[in-house]
């Protein structure tokens, strides 16, 4: 790696993997995709041919290549931990899509290795931290514009899900974004969480629970409620309101043309995460590349991935027990402070 160009290998060439390859090629000027791997060889070969990259026989082989400076992991959830650990052992920068791992122990292993290396190597794929709306909300909170934050009301609504969707995915794949962004906005950790039973939607196409209502209490006593609709919603719609002592902050809708016709005012809503958060994904990878070149990553860390994993586990346990569950984490290592 020279001072101006990062050679990137991408593991996982599914929907989001292809989005990221395109982004790293045509949006981020400091990166070049030189290697790809997917367990479906044909898919990897097609991506490699399109972007003039090399298709590798395994993710481990890609990580070990001297021609790869940094790795993007967007493969299936259960493979994330193994690839990330291998990158960290080789002191190689890695970007990992959520979730970081399936267990807290795997996250703890990653943090131990990263601490031994002496600097941050991993950035989590929590792109909402780079969304302009959330960034403005964060700035307003830090400036004290609405006084001390007291609570957050959030909603994450989806039109549909892919085949094989399960009840737990509403937490580990969907609400995980609200888990992270609420911690980030409030600059606090969770003390207790709970999943509450609500009336189920007839619009659900599978046999998973939908919707789900999740409650969070932070260490300082702030309350957060997150409504998660994983299927049958009217649009892909993300809502967030911070209630402070002196006012409220609302996440703005994406820019759209307002139509005034037939005594009505209307504007369109999106149908997919890729279009709703396209700009934040771009900014996320631009900042990742800049962080690598400066050896100072600024996005979500391994600790943030760990916190989301522990919180997800507690939420799943609460759904099973019907009771509030404590969020218990290990001591934070110095490199994450």
TrEMBL record:
Q: Could you tell me which InterPro entries the record lists for this protein?
A: Gfo-Idh-MocA_inositol_DH (IPR050424), Gfo/Idh/MocA-like_OxRdtase_C (IPR004104), Gfo/Idh/MocA-like_OxRdtase_N (IPR000683), NAD(P)-bd_dom_sf (IPR036291)
Q: Which organism is it from?
A: Tetragenococcus halophilus (Pediococcus halophilus)
Cross-referenced Gene3D superfamilies, in alphabetical order? Dihydrodipicolinate Reductase, domain 2, NAD(P)-binding Rossmann-like Domain
Q: Which domain of life is it from?
A: Bacteria
According to UniProt, the name of this protein is Gfo/Idh/MocA family oxidoreductase
A molecular function (GO) term? nucleotide binding
In the record, the note on similarity to other proteins reads: Belongs to the Gfo/Idh/MocA family.
